[in-house]
């Protein structure tokens, strides 16, 4: 079972908007990580639909596109789209999805796209940015870069210490070893909000990623920070997906 099955709320697209319930902190910006798995041979059609219609209609209905990626894994690269969008609040998300789904232009684009039904219901997790999440900016020459989506599940009571380690040490050490931080989030809904860190980093290439992780892992400064952080071992092995940005992704 993949991390998406374990950590994300499975939401049927047709009734997503009607099932969202605003929470007391609904007025804060929220991000949404979504994963689509298409029927065989339909990923190109799905990408075309996002490129030519969906992103524009998202914007029309108050949904901000952050980034769109396809996994580099051979099998997943054939049928999987991973993306992150931003809403003004959970309440705004519900309203935006409702308006988007009901939009006649969206219905026409969906019918004409040739995508058909997805192979599985879309997967979704709502998130909030950590206080150390950077303001990411694209840089020249990033077209060949590889992104990495990583999920950490901390042992009970240690998420704050894990955050402190990233805030005070890990991000700087990532930069030292050629790893660019894109964004860091916590899920907004329990139980994952209590123990889960989701983040995306960027490497110059797949080979560079291997070299960077090797150098990072052997760095005495990292070993010292890890030892003194009080985090200990994670509750489970970190999970990761290497990804390439689509040609229409705002993040490249």
From TrEMBL:
Lineage of the organism: Bacteria, Pseudomonadati, Planctomycetota, Planctomycetia, Pirellulales
InterPro entries: Dimeric_a/b-barrel, NIPSNAP
SUPFAM superfamilies: Dimeric alpha+beta barrel
Keyword Signal found: yes
UniProt-listed Pfam families: NIPSNAP
Coiled-coil residue spans: none
Superkingdom of source: Bacteria
NIPSNAP domain location: 31-134, 147-250
Record has Signal as a keyword: yes
Keywords: Signal
Gene3D superfamilies tied to this protein: 3.30.70.100
Record's signal peptide: 1-22
Species whose genome carries this gene: Stieleria magnilauensis
Protein's recorded name: NIPSNAP domain-containing protein
